[in-house]
Each structure stands twice: as C-alpha cells, then as structure tokens.
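Sample intake sheet
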Amino acid sequence: MNEKKLDIKVGFIIANKDFRNEEYFEPRKVLEKAGLSIVTIAMEKGLCIGKLGGEVFADVAIKDVKIQEQNFSAIIFVGGSGSKIYWHNEFAQNICRLIIEKYPNKILAAICSSVATLAFAGVLKNIKANSYQSEREIIKEYGAILMDDDIVVDVNDKHKIITANGPKVAKLFGEEILKHLN
C-alpha cells in the first residue's frame, strides 16, 4: 500500500434517499482498501437510504462543505434517482465550479444521473463525458463532448474530471479515480 495515500480524503455526495447503492458502496470499498479517508456528504447530515435499501450515515451536510479547509482530494457525485436533488442546488454547483476554477489538482467525478449536476454547474463545456442514458442529452446540451465509453477520463493540467454511465461500472469507476489521485 502506498503510504502517501493514507493522507488522501475523498468526499462522496449522495442523496439522503434513493442514491444508487452500487455507485456509492463499490467505489468506496476500492478507495478504503487503498487506505483513503472517506467522508459522506448529503443534503442533510444523518441517515441516508439507497434505492436498494443500503444505509449509510452522512458525516457532513452539503452546505457545510469547504473543499480546501477539509482537504478533499476528490469529490464524487453518486447517481440514482435521488441525485436529481443536486442538479440545481447552489451548494453542489459551487463545489463543482470551485474545484474546476481553483483546484485543478483535485478530482471532480460523477456517475450515472449525477453527471447532470456537473453539466448544470457549467463545468462540462468542451469536456469529454458520459452519463446515464436519460441524462446524455442534458450533458450534451450543456457543452459536454459526449462519449460512448462506460468511464470517461478528461484529465489535463487544468482539470481532472471523471464520469461514468451507471451502476454496472461502479467498481471500475472507483479504480479509475484511485489511479488519478495524487
């Protein structure tokens, strides 16, 4: 295990209700196994219940997230029907924009329906991305370069954006995020 990774903190943003279980638990397992710290963020601090019944306690309310002060190396938006609560949420959009504008070394990642949050925040313009089928037109309309790959990595010296199309690639999504953490 890489000792350096032990100092890395990753924030998962999930809905308090109806987040997609696989898209949270599978990447989390990958990252925890590598020794990373996980912080679960939701609209409200407290119990969150996934679409398939999985339960997790949110450590932080989204309104209280401070990217730099809390030393996050990555923020991951988890999909599922509940993720639509973040599409037009000012706190979620500010997190997306702040990472892209001020912290190009931090990863901004989203899977499934939650990729639309990035699109509505305006951070996918001219960025290669993919999402769940039902959100593909949204991300394209907001300027994303729509790709067909299950997992799309658009990383350069200005940003690190990783998107994925759904629960079937959740574990691989976590592995891809791990590859790009420094």
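Comment: The chain has one domain: 3-180. The longest helix spans residues 21-33.
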